[in-house]
Amino acid sequence: MKNEVVFHESKKYMPGGVNSPVRAFKNTAMTPPIIKSGKGSVIVDEEGKEYIDFVLAWGPMFLGHCDDDVVRSITETSRNAIAFGAPTEIELKMAKFLCKNLNNVEMVRMVNSGTEATMSAIKLARGYTKKNKIVKFAGCYHGHFDGFLVEAGSGVLTNGIPGSLGVPEDSIKNTLIAKYNNKESIKELFKTYGEDIAAVIIEPVAGNMGVIKAEEDFMVLLRELCDKYNSLLIFDEVMTGFRVAFEGAQKLFSVKPDLVTYAKIIGGGLPCGAYGGRKEIMECLSPVGEVYQAGTMSGNPIVMAAGLSTLKKIKKNKEEYYKKIEDLGRQLEEGVIEIAKDKGIPVTVNRYGGMMTIFFTDLDVVKTYEDVKTCDEGLFRNYLKHMIKSGINIPPSQYEALFLSVAHTKDDINKFLNAFKNFNK
Ligand SMILES: *Cc1c(COP(=O)(O)O)cnc(C)c1O
Q: Fewest CB atoms within 10 A around its CB: which of 155, 195, 229, 386?
């Protein structure tokens, strides 16, 4: 009962009982588990019930919950440094790490969330190109910044909100919407507005309409159009960075972005974001240039410590970790497909490394936003309820990705598959 009591009480003090909408399990007719603790691949709710966690804080906990090295770095740093609002050496270490290890990032600016990273990257692109319009793709989510709340994925899609109240038309009049993996749609936009387009922003592997990878020739076209019209190409790697590969989604394409945004894994579970790119563009930022973007907490020492210890550990064990996650991912994917077939449940699974969506659809291939909309939400709701009851924590939406960590084991995957076997639609 405790989950229900806490959630009921929470609704009195926080809108919907939550600090971020998708956590409320709206439209699922369920009370979300109230989570008390986590270690490795397991989280525990207020009633003491354990779950194998496939949400992982929506991606960041790549090492699993409360990894010993990350906990140590947070504890040790906080003894002497909590916040100064002054330059520190640890933020230099983080910046160096990111610039040395990421492709196409010569300089970086740290911020506090993915939303901040993408909205700042857009401002920078506008300042650099001296143009106003931006192109985003229907179904892609880049955070809750006004200019992006049009045809956004993630919670906006799940909750059936067409966009958002409180977003004046003026804020989105410079946002153009194109169709993901649809060449005609982006060509058409550039033909009409090319001279005014400051930037195209894309999730190279979308995770917020379910997992869908952009096609290589589509990305090549984006690069060509951006070059032709002097627009910047921005990869939003908030979810895919260090997730689909150490090098992120950029490893999967021949195309280079001008700016890249990060968050989630790079903060090791603490609030963190970053955007980076070519020096010549980044130096348009104040205090060198005239694009103003600031943050009292940006580059916070404890956040840098958690992020850096996470990234260093991943780098040190890179081969082992990404192979392990690929192996577990394959086991999960193949298992789900086989069980669904036996049960006569139509599914299509899209997966890149430890990022995966099970689409409940008759379609054999899911590669556009239109495809995603064919999913059976009722079936998904029943499946969600069953899985949570069975101690398997998955995202409460058909349009999100589930994640794997290096702390997951074959046994964890078997538990997922056994739970799925017992699912009666
Ligand atoms: C999560 C996410 C964001 C927003 O990040 P927040 O830290 O929640 O503000 C932006 N873009 C993508 C691709 C994301 O997955």
A: 195
Is the C-beta atom of 241 inside 6 A of ligand 1? no
Q: In the prediction, which pLDDT does 166 show?
A: 86
Rounded distance from Cα 49 to ligand 1 centre (Å): 29
Q: Clarify whether 141 is annotated catalytic.
A: yes
Is the pLDDT at 1 greater than 80? The verdict is no
Question: Does residue 238 line the site of ligand 1, with CB under 6 A?
Answer: yes
Percent of the chain scoring above 70 in pLDDT: 97
Domain limits for position 20: 3-66+317-421
* Opening angle at CA 141, ends 301 and 340, nearest 5: 110
Hey, what amino acid is at 174? N
Which H helix or E strand runs over 217? helix 216-228
Q: pTM of the prediction?
A: 0.96
Q: Ligand 1 center to residue 271 CA distance, Å?
A: 11
Cα 238 to ligand 1 centre (Å) = 6
Q: What are phi and psi of 122, to 5 degrees?
A: -65, -45
Are 222 and 129 contained in the same domain?
yes
- Kindly report, residue by residue over 196-213, the tens digit of the pLDDT: 999 999 999 999 999 999
* 264 is known as an active-site residue: yes
